[in-house]
Write a structure and sequence with these properties.
Number of helices: 3
Number of strands: 3
Distance between the termini: 42 Å
Structural class: alpha+beta
Radius of gyration: 14 Å
Strand order of the largest sheet: 2-1-3
Oligomer: single chain
Length: 98
């Protein structure tokens, strides 16, 4: 059985000392606790790096599977995430062809 989480992440790279908060919806193994999720989020591309993994997260809460599925749909509509994923995809393809 899996656990579902809503995590509001701080993303960097939007200008000097600026950040944007984006809700992310995650599915993890059932044994994950909130600290495991925070560690996972701190390694995600684009998430703001700071003094420890807690600097990457603004809020975290367990949610239902229905809320997770609904949240994943909203992620696909988020312009910041679209741009981030497109950039990372381009970066990966460029490295492979070089």
């Amino acid at each position: 059985m899996d656990k579902y989480w809503k995590v509001v992440c701080y993303y960097g790279h939007v200008g000097s000392r600026n950040e944007v908060s984006v809700p992310r919806f995650l599915k993890t193994p059932s044994y994950f606790n909130s600290m495991d999720v925070i560690d996972l989020v701190s390694t995600m591309p684009g998430v703001k790096k700071g003094k420890g993994p807690l600097s990457a997260v603004r809020a975290i809460e367990p949610i239902s599977e229905a809320a997770y599925l609904s949240g994943k749909e909203t992620e696909h509509e988020n312009l910041y995430l679209k741009k981030l994923m497109t950039f990372n995809l381009y970066k990966t393809k460029t490295k492979e062809t070089a």
